[in-house]
Amino acid sequence: MNASTASPSASSSRQILNADSLRQLCLELGADDVGFVELNRPALDPERADILTALPGTRTLISFTCRMNREPIRSPFRSLANKEFHQASDIISEVGHNISRELERKSIRALNISAGFPMEADRFPGRLWVISHKPLAEAAGLGRMGIHRNVIHPKFGSFILLGTILIDAEVTQYSHPIDYNPCVECKLCVAACPVGAIHADGHFNFSACYTHNYREFMGGFNDWVETIADSRNARDYRSRVTGAETTSMWQSLSFGANYKAAYCLAVCPAGEDVISRFLTNKKQFVTDILRPLQEKKETIYVIPGSDAEDHVKKRFPCKTVKQVHNGLYVSSIAQLLNRLHVAFQPNQSAGLDVTYHFTFTGAESVNATITIRDKRLTVQEGLIGTPNLHVTADATTWLGFLRKERNILWALLTRRIRLKGKIALLKQFARCFPS
């Protein structure tokens, strides 16, 4: 598929915009940097279907960024950081709105997809977003992803928010990725992350980050509501949720959802405008920015038995661990298999070298092979090789078991779940995916 054949709209005019003029317009209307990517760019393959659903006839994507102020993000007072996130998000939404409006005045169809929320909540816990801003920003030359999984702009560093505009016109010149990564590999984000989500070798534990940092978003909010529903009375609720936690949730509901950490952004020294303070005195940079976040007394939310729980107890004794559920429940076997890598806890799998066969029956007929070896997870379609354990399960029963709505013993006795191999291997499997 290419940009000229992707559009089902016969009325779309085949306009070609001057890239320099379009860039100048975006900058004048508040963008701090901008790039253009054609629809048929291979980097957009995972995004193209949603792009064309959002704006049929899209030919070009405008990726733009707005800077955030650094000091609020660096502050141990997270209210200040979150206020900056919200203000910057409002700004980038307004900038995208104004650019789109000017393009519409020129008879160009334009759709602003601003940073942050709202999202497509009906697709939760699947793909909530319309477009992934980060890979598009990389394709547009606005930076590269660091090991903290944020785009690092060559000039502004990690202190940016991203926006995207879809247009039904081509431009005279498209942008390309920068030929280096601004990340300086200082590993300060690794040291700062309270849940150990960022690993020095590049591995990222999504589950750890999501459970804590996004506690007052989506899944964490679901868990809080279920805690209210499960509480017998006010006293029981107060034994489960502190007054500070209730107030924080109210604040998120009233003024916008708050991040619990985002320390990886706070300590990142990369970017031409940012790095001088780090290079001038690295020790002082660590003292002023990293240490206050590491030594902050706060509650860290973790899944019981997770790598994050072990990390907090080992690295941050000054912080309080609170066991929670992250509120992520899958609704199908296909979704489960697709998201296993998100829930996988590498350190909990230490020493395992096991192959599992899963045969799901009933509402979904699916065969899958799951291998855990060297702290790595592999999921393959079909039954491959010789398994150490073969699980045959009714799909609905298995999903109910995962949601703790079905008892495993009952399922085994009624043969809705059948095992061929050592049952201890199923326990070891569960250990790698705590919930």
TrEMBL record:
SUPFAM superfamilies in the cross-refs: alpha-helical ferredoxin, SCP-like
Highest taxon of the lineage: Bacteria
Keyword Iron-sulfur in annotation: yes
Keyword entries, A-Z: Iron, Iron-sulfur, Metal-binding
4Fe-4S ferredoxin-type domain boundaries: 174-203
GO molecular function, one term: iron-sulfur cluster binding
InterPro entries: 4Fe4S_Fe-S-bd, 4Fe4S_Fe_S_CS, SCP2_sterol-bd_dom_sf
Protein name: 4Fe-4S ferredoxin iron-sulfur binding domain protein
Organism, as annotated: Pedosphaera parvula (strain Ellin514)
